[in-house]
Structures are given as C-alpha cells and as structure tokens.
C-alpha cells in the first residue's frame, strides 16, 4: 500500500491513525513534506517509543526545528538518542538550547556525548558511538557471549566485538556469528580476526566511512592517537556519512549548495540562498567569455560566419569538460582514483578528448562546409578537436589538484570548468581562424 499524502489537512484522530499505519521510514518521509507547524503537530501524535525512532531518522536540521517546538518533551527525546545522534543535533541548535539539553542528561550520558563533541567537526570521532561492547584478549568465547548479553542492550552494535589488550589497545575483532559457532571454552584470541581494521577518531568521516564500505564491515573500531579503543563506527552511520557526502557533491557539481534537508521543508528564501552565490560567481566568470568575443570583434566583422558556430563550440567544450569532471569526482569519491594518479588520469582523459574531438569533427565538418564553406569547415574541425582535448584535460586535472590542496573537488567541478573551457575554447577558435583564414 502506498503511503498517504501529507497529513496536515485532516483532523487529529485521523492523522494519528494514518501515521500509526506507516512504517518509520514512511513517517520520516511524510514529516519532511510538512511545514514546521504541521510537522510539530504530527510528531506529537506519535507514541513515545515510535517518536524516538522517527526522531533518530530525521535530518539534524528538522530535529533542531522540532526541539524548538517540543519544549519540555525535547529533553526526554534527546536523552533517548545515541550519543552520535545527539552530537549531530547539537551542531544544529543554538548554544543556549544545547547547554540545556546537555544539562538534562544523566551524568554518564552527558560524558559520552561531550566526548564526541571534543573531536573536530566532520571527523570519525563525531560519528562513532562510544557505547561499545569490548572484551579483553584473555577472555573465553563463553565469557564474551555473557558480556554481550549483559552490556549489549546499551551498545550501538553487538555484531562486532573489539578485543583489547592492556591499555585498551585493539588486538583484534570477533563477529557475533563466530562467537555463537565457537566452543564456549575456546579463548577469544583463537577466533578473533587480527590485526583488526581500525580508523582514528580524527580521520575524516568520509574516509572512515569508505573503510567500512570497501571492507564490507558491519563496523570498525575507532581508536585515539595511542591506538586505544574509544568507540565504533557502524555500517549504518557510515552509510549516512557517504549519503550526505554524495548529496553534497551532486549539489555542488550542479552549481548549488546542498539543502541538507527534504526539499519541501526548505523555504523559497532557502532555495534562493543555496543558488544565488553560485550564479553570481558564474556570471562573473562568464563575463570573460564576453571579453574574449569583444577582443576578437574585428575578426568576427571580417568573417561573420565565425559567429554562427560560437554556441556550438561553447556547448561542446563545456559538456566535454563537465563529463570528465563528473566522472573523476565520482571516481575520487569512491576511492577508484587518488591524488597521486593525476598524471595517469590526465593522460587517459587527454586521449579520450582527442578521440571524441576527432569523432565529432568527422561528423560535423560536412554540414559546416555546406553552411559556411570549406575553410570554415576546416577551422571548425580543428577547433572541435582542440577544444575537446582541452576540456577533458582540464576537467580531469582540476578536481584532483583541488583535492590535493584540501579543496572539495565538487566546488571547482562542472560549472567552473565549463566556464573556463568556454573562454579558452573561444581563444583557440579565433586563433585557429586567424591562422587558417589569414585574417
């Protein structure tokens, strides 16, 4: 059965019944479609246990809005969250609200949450859970299972159990499946996987999430600078990190800022703010193209037919550059390409651009000759080859060079590369025209 439509226009009893019939993900989806007031009303209609589940799955920005409207109820819901979810929410609410929410926590929960807030924003330490079941390397399988039963209710996951030595240093990990299938008297050291794959709390959260995904792990232990266990990054939290990064890259590749919340919950002014700065920057960049055309105004006056193909060349170069940039940014995001691969990537894309340019030139030279004559056809063919080669070279190298100096590749990808290629492509076009036509 498909989920019902938005619920802010029906009476409260029917609202309650319709929300109760939905799974948690569907409730989260419906709340994201509502205006803030309707969202708060609908959320209050949920049973307390279900409300906590729904709240955990909401985007942090929507959580912050609900906290502002829930008042006295916010503290109990905040206390029911996992420490990593609390840390994400506290980044969204005003400092005064954050202090009140922390003060209402039980002392041990406050310490656990505050420990995460001590790590840099965007780090693995902010996204890990400090609530982890760990056992000493000298423990038996039976004792480990008893430990999981005793402490597992409060842990983020019991499917992965870190095995630690002296000083809480991680010696290995053991899966719950391996524990259940092993003899209870067997030392856990004999069934654990060692050495364990770990990430550091100060590592970038995206890099740590890639470790979880690429290794196919249900989670990885998180360690501090002295390799002591401080938490665990689970696969669900890792996937959330990667999804957020993918949304951010997709938005910036398209020339906008990420919304970080459901579309229908964003105000029109919010949509404007996410786009206007990029458009202003691109207008400034595009003015270079106008400057190039003005510089070659005399050449255009002598051979008016050159102007006919300017839109075609601009579109072709911009598209070729955007294709290369998008491909490389994505390959970099999933770890297929690293910053040290710049030379290999540029070489491949340069050859790709050359072959694409030759193909397009062969296809397009005939119509160009029919429209503007053989000389213009030659100019156009040479320019298409040069522009495609230039576009794929720039489109592949700029994102990797940006990443090497610590800039998000998506910021300098498709829109800026397209504008840059437009400008340089026109310079190439008019330079070739001057040489071939003798103007």
UniProtKB/TrEMBL annotation:
Membrane topology of this protein: Multi-pass membrane protein
Organism whose genome encodes this protein: Cellulomonas phragmiteti
Q: Which PROSITE patterns match?
A: CBS
Q: Which Gene3D superfamilies match?
A: CBS-domain, MgtE N-terminal domain-like, SLC41 divalent cation transporters, integral membrane domain
Q: What role does this protein play?
A: Acts as a magnesium transporter.
Extract the InterPro entries matched here.
Answer: CBS_dom (IPR000644), CBS_dom_sf (IPR046342), Mg_transptr_MgtE_intracell_dom (IPR006668), MgtE_N_sf (IPR038076), MgtE_transporter (IPR006669), SLC41_membr_dom (IPR006667), SLC41_membr_dom_sf (IPR036739)
What is its subcellular localisation?
Cell membrane; Membrane
The protein's matches in NCBIfam families, at most eight in alphabetical order, are given as: mgtE
User: Which keywords label this protein?
Assistant: CBS domain, Cell membrane, Magnesium, Membrane, Metal-binding, Transmembrane, Transmembrane helix, Transport
Pfam families the record matches: CBS, MgtE, MgtE_N
Per its record, how is this protein called by name?
Magnesium transporter MgtE
